[in-house]
Design a protein that fits this description.
mainly alpha, two-stranded antiparallel sheet, two-stranded antiparallel ribbon, about 80% helix, Putative adenylate cyclase terminal-differentiation specific
Length: about 325
């Protein structure tokens, strides 16, 4: 039992050490995952900023391409008009002023439209720039808040780890004291148990000796009683055998005596070839003749003697 308790104690220490290692491994994995998550968030923010910058550059390039295409279109239109004017100059001298005015108005209209488009583009650009700045400010505020949260989280985590370490050291110290106390109590209980076992073993040995002595005496007594009973049964059996032998001898003597007296009786000679049965009916002998019985049955009142075909058959005496 002591080795089993030591083994259980060792298994408990191994289990606690395994739990501590598992908790440390889980904390390290959690810190590594948080670090990887922060790096991934920073990478995503950088990718998002780079994508926004590329998008703004692409939009600016598209606007420049659109303006260049518009200018080229206007230039082509102007050249086409000049060519037409040159072709139809002779035929349209009367309308030259009007066309010039129309061209001037159209040019002014184009300039106005160009100015409006430029103003619109500038407004859109200013709006996008303002949105970008607002988005950048929000991102800066969010990053600052996240950095502050990470700092607070790391500080709380460090405080929690210090507190857990102190609690672990305190639990280990308390556990060591408890183990020492348990070991002392175990040694004391083991000593008391050993003393009880010795005392119990002595009592059992004493009881075993007394029981063996009692069983030996009972066995001797039963053997003595069995011998006496066997001797008594033997004597009774001998007495019964002697009495049966005596009765058998008496019966044989009586049978021979009766057979001789009946065989030589005068009244039995005429019926030698028949079976004769004499019965006592209260008034005297009553003779009955039965075939195939050479010897009669003779009754004297107090005893009945019966013969069969042979003289050696059993004689019944009542």
């Amino acid at each position: 039992q002591h080795e089993q308790r030591q083994q259980e104690h060792q298994e408990q220490e191994d289990q606690q050490r395994g739990q501590q290692e598992q908790e440390q491994q889980e904390q390290q994995d959690q810190q590594r995952q948080q670090q990887e998550q922060r790096q991934q968030e920073q990478q995503e923010e950088q990718d998002q900023q780079r994508q926004q910058q590329e998008q703004r550059q692409q939009e600016h390039q598209e606007q420049q391409d659109q303006q260049r295409q518009q200018q080229e279109q206007m230039q082509r239109e102007l050249q086409e008009e000049q060519r037409q004017q040159h072709v139809h100059l002779v035929h349209q001298q009367l309308h030259y002023r009007q066309q010039q005015d129309q061209l001037y108005e159209r040019h002014e209209q184009r300039q106005k439209e160009q100015e409006q488009r430029e103003q619109q583009r500038q407004k859109e650009q200013e709006q996008r720039e303002r949105q970008r700045q607002e988005h950048q400010e929000r991102q800066d505020v969010q990053q600052a808040r996240q950095y502050e949260q990470r700092q607070q989280h790391e500080q709380r985590q460090q405080e929690q780890q210090d507190q857990q370490r102190q609690q672990q050291e305190q639990r280990q110290q308390e556990q060591q004291e408890q183990q020492d106390q348990q070991r002392q109590q175990q040694e004391q209980r083991q000593q008391e148990y050993q003393e009880q076992q010795d005392q119990r073993r002595e009592q059992q040995e004493q009881m075993q000796r007394e029981l063996q002595e009692e069983q030996r005496q009972q066995h001797e007594q039963r053997q003595q009683e069995q011998r006496e009973q066997q001797e008594q049964q033997r004597l009774q059996h001998e007495q019964i055998q002697q009495r049966q032998q005596y009765l058998a001898n008496v019966q044989q003597m009586q049978q021979r005596r009766i057979e001789e007296s009946i065989r030589h009786a005068p009244w039995a000679r005429p019926f030698a070839s028949l079976d004769v049965q004499n019965s006592w009916n209260g008034n005297g002998f009553h003779r009955q003749l039965q075939q195939a019985q050479p010897f009669p049955i003779y009754h004297t009142g107090s005893q009945t003697v019966q013969w069969g075909r042979r003289p050696q058959q059993q004689v019944v005496v009542e």
